[in-house]
Automatic annotation (TrEMBL):
Record-linked SUPFAM superfamilies: Tetrahydrobiopterin biosynthesis enzymes-like
Organism: Aspergillus cavernicola
Protein name: dihydroneopterin aldolase
Catalytic activity: 7,8-dihydroneopterin = 6-hydroxymethyl-7,8-dihydropterin + glycolaldehyde
Family the UniProt entry places it in: Belongs to the DHNA family.
EC numbers: 4.1.2.25
Pfam families, sorted: FolB
PANTHER family, alphabetized: DIHYDRONEOPTERIN ALDOLASE 1-RELATED (PTHR42844:SF1)
Pathway as given in its UniProt record: Cofactor biosynthesis; tetrahydrofolate biosynthesis; 2-amino-4-hydroxy-6-hydroxymethyl-7,8-dihydropteridine diphosphate from 7,8-dihydroneopterin triphosphate: step 3/4
Length: 310
């Protein structure tokens, strides 16, 4: 039986778009992905959030914060959600459902417990922020009719777990972009339109370069991956099942190489990430931090699909 898809309507913005930002907020997770594969361990986590709406103009014109969004209250509600993670209470204030662009619920992976699915947490944070925006827009319009576009909202959430991977100095990053949308019965939902994971700064050591001195001793190569998906549970589960092993294998395989060019290294890694680990599309960046004395790093970045190698 084919899945039933719901038509999702996403209103377009009709005026100015402004942003409320929370940057690098420390949100320690009661339970999250652990580099040693231990379940139920507390993990450091940093969140950045950008909530877009239309707009702050009336608040700015009247110099009245009651006609804008209260980022303090927004933070408190996010903090409460995270403190209860991975078992948040039902009926959190301003929480709305999270769906993909086809209207299918984003419920996370049923067999992945103990807070391992950080994409589910990011989606819940975004839906809470959009729900708060939707309620505040209605309240603002009740005071000043037309001051806010009530049906428009966009939220970008970025979660950074710096200790999630042994070989990746920059850790694991998840980014999700959601917008306010409505289904056929006018129920408001947070619609996922962009979804990606990043693995930052996998530290490798290999022989690389064309200069004579570069062929004598291994040097550091920093590798980062970006993998985008379709905003559905199946794609997220696949990535969360393989990302730790994929990071380890890439580090170990690059360590064995003796290529002359960084270009060859990034294509080699892209093949591993797509063909060997089943990712449809990957962006790979590799940098040599010691190549130039006065540059932090020099490197190459490419994007390749699995079909490119088939």
């Amino acid at each position: 039986m084919g899945e039933c898809r719901t038509i999702i309507q996403i209103p377009s913005v009709t005026g100015l778009v402004d942003h409320i930002c929370l940057r690098n907020v420390q949100l320690p997770l009661p339970s999250g992905p652990d580099a040693w594969h231990r379940l139920g361990r507390r993990q450091p986590c940093t969140m950045s959030l950008k909530l877009s709406w239309s707009s702050v103009s009336t608040s700015a014109k009247e110099d009245d914060v009651s006609l804008s969004l209260d980022y303090g209250k927004l933070y408190q509600r996010i903090d409460k959600l995270v403190q209860e993670w991975p078992n948040p209470q039902e009926g959190l204030e301003n929480q709305i459902s999270v769906v993909d662009i086809h209207g299918q619920p984003a419920n996370g992976s049923p067999d992945m417990g103990h807070g391992e699915d950080i994409s589910l947490l990011a989606g819940r944070i975004g839906s809470l922020a959009l729900g708060y925006l939707h309620e505040r827009s209605r309240a603002i319009n009740a005071i000043r009719p037309g001051a806010a576009q009530q049906d428009f909202g966009q939220c970008e959430v970025r979660l950074h777990l710096p200790k999630a991977l042994l070989r990746a100095q920059g850790g694991l990053v998840h980014r999700i972009l959601q917008v306010l949308g409505n289904n056929q019965v006018d129920a408001t939902a947070a619609v996922v339109i962009e979804d990606e994971f990043r693995i930052e700064n996998i530290r490798c050591h290999c022989i690389i370069g064309v200069n004579t001195h570069e062929r004598v001793e291994k040097q550091a190569v920093m590798v980062s991956l970006k993998i985008k998906g379709q905003g559905n549970d199946h794609w997220r589960k696949h990535f969360l099942d393989i990302y730790q092993e994929m990071t380890r294998v890439i580090a170990e395989e690059v360590d064995k190489t003796t290529f002359k060019s960084v270009e060859t290294v990034v294509v080699f890694i892209a093949r591993l990430a797509t063909v060997d680990f089943g990712n449809d599309l990957v962006t790979v960046r590799a940098e040599k931090p010691n190549a130039l004395a006065f540059a932090e790093g020099t490197g190459v970045e490419i994007t390749r699909s699995r079909s490119f190698f088939c």
